[in-house]
Design brief:
It is a single chain. This protein is an alpha/beta fold. It has two domains: 3-370, P-loop containing nucleotide triphosphate hydrolases (Rossmann fold, 3-Layer(aba) Sandwich), CATH 3.40.50.300; 377-444, Orthogonal Bundle (Arc Repressor Mutant, subunit A), CATH 1.10.10. 47% of the residues lie in helices and 14% in strands. It contains 20 helices and 14 strands.
């Protein structure tokens, strides 16, 4: 069970359910230790709820892919195929079942591509139109993304002397962008003037998409954009810039750690009959989802949400905190998708419990990858330097070989002190008192 759920009061119903689950064989998720002396993220049983959990349990023994990667990509794909009809209005914001997820693993060992290939084969049976025409690869610009979900375009017809439709646009506004090399997307975001980041942020929110330039008259309304990316841990650390981590792009993504679950030298036996079976079952649930409008919440859901909301919405510091600062929004969207997969117009407590397990897994993934990094190289270097002992302002400058400006160092020191990560003391000298910086009490432990 995740730390999030452990914080919730254990009701008799939850205790009974947990006892029942204890009698069931758990999925193969043996914790693995790698070069760091910490456990890799582990996904709790609650996440494998309902039809989607049944699918992952049936598929897992026949693939080397990580169950967490399989599960999250299945949920994202289902939410993408369901469309923007099912929705919630919370605090004035519309939430629909579109999500972004990036699978993070070791190159050649994370089985990232394998995980998506299995899922796509099932969705080809669940919704052939969506799978064949609304799954695209190759995010290179914001304008290119808008083009895939564009509204009809009008232009002046000289012969008729009036405005006329020159491009009928795209009728099906669903889009699932698959990026097997997500590092290339992050590289694109580094280019000056590229609009992909703000367009992706707006698309996650479900807002109107427009490049806001006269040279690109296209725009898109009522779009339903989802994203699945694959990247290695090394590429993510190298490519995710401080800007994208802080501007709301990174926290709109479910970061999911993936490692090879098992060795299958000759592959598995998840044959055509199983693919057809689950494709048919997902198809019936998608058909039901598309006629749902506003979604409801059961009383049990509301009570659980009230208990967990303070912890979900609490701001946390550092790069890890920034990348997981939309936990409450992700929990709600994932809860919606779990409900839709169950064929329910109402979100129940079990749907939220399942969603919270994924949110906790994402938080663990981010902490595993980025640790206590702040996302600011200057601040990170100061913290690392202070581990060897207290330092004066002059000694802090020497950490950078006196190649960083006083302005940058002072800004970092002010930020670290404001967050309680470092503290200062004064020491008397033969001349003026001097200020000495130390790690804060929590950092020094």
């Amino acid at each position: 069970m995740s730390k999030l759920l452990q914080a919730v009061e254990m009701t008799p119903e939850i205790v009974t359910e947990l006892k029942q689950r204890q009698n069931q064989p758990p999925p193969d998720r043996t914790p693995v230790r790698e070069e760091r002396d910490v456990l890799l993220p582990s996904l709790g049983d609650w996440a494998f709820h309902g039809l989607v959990g049944e699918f992952i349990m049936a598929l897992s023994p026949h693939t080397e892919a990580d169950p967490a990667a399989l599960l999250v990509q299945t949920l994202v794909a289902f939410g993408a195929a369901a469309g923007r009809g099912p929705h919630l209005i919370l605090d004035g914001s519309r939430h629909q079942p579109n999500e972004y997820a990036v699978i993070v693993g070791a190159s050649g060992k994370g089985r990232k591509g394998t995980s998506w290939a299995r899922i796509k084969s099932v969705f080809e049976g669940a919704d052939a139109e969506f799978s064949n025409h609304r799954i695209k690869t190759g995010l290179s610009s914001g304008e290119g993304l808008i083009f895939q979900v564009r509204d009809p375009i009008e232009s002046y017809d000289i012969k008729k002397g009036e405005m006329a439709i020159s491009d009928p646009g795209v009728e099906d506004k669903r889009l699932l962008a698959i990026e097997p090399e997500f590092a290339s997307v992050l590289k694109v975001l580094e280019r000056d003037g590229n609009l992909l980041s703000p367009i992706l942020r707006s698309a996650w929110d479900g807002g109107k998409l427009s490049p806001l330039t006269k040279s690109h008259p296209i725009e898109a309304t009522d779009s339903h954009v989802s994203l699945i990316g694959h990247i290695t841990e090394e590429e993510l650390v190298r490519r995710l810039t401080e800007t994208e981590a802080a501007n709301g792009f990174g926290n709109r993504i479910l970061w999911v750690f993936s490692r090879r679950a098992r060795l299958l030298p000759f592959g598995g036996q998840f044959g055509p009959e199983k693919i057809e079976e689950f494709g048919s079952r997902f198809r019936s649930r998608l058909e039901a989802a598309r006629i749902i409008g506003p979604m409801g919440m059961t009383e049990d859901f509301k009570r659980l949400w009230e208990r967990i909301y303070p912890d979900l919405s609490e701001g946390k510091g550092g790069l890890s905190g920034g990348l997981t600062s939309r936990a409450e929004a992700h929990a709600m969207r994932l809860g919606m998708i779990y409900a839709l997969v169950d064929g329910s117009p109402n979100m129940e407590a079990d749907h939220l419990r399942a969603a919270l397990e994924i949110v906790a897994y994402v938080q663990d993934t981010v902490r595993w990858i980025f640790g206590e990094s702040l996302g600011d190289p200057v601040s990170d270097a100061i913290l690392e330097g202070l581990k060897s002992g207290p330092k004066t302002r002059t000694e802090l400058a020497r950490i950078f070989g006196n190649h960083k400006s006083a302005r940058l160092i002072d800004r970092a020191v002010k930020s670290l002190a404001g967050g309680g990560r470092i503290v200062s003391t004064t020491e008397k000298t033969a001349g003026r008192e001097r200020t000495v910086w130390h790690l804060g009490a929590e950092k020094a432990k």
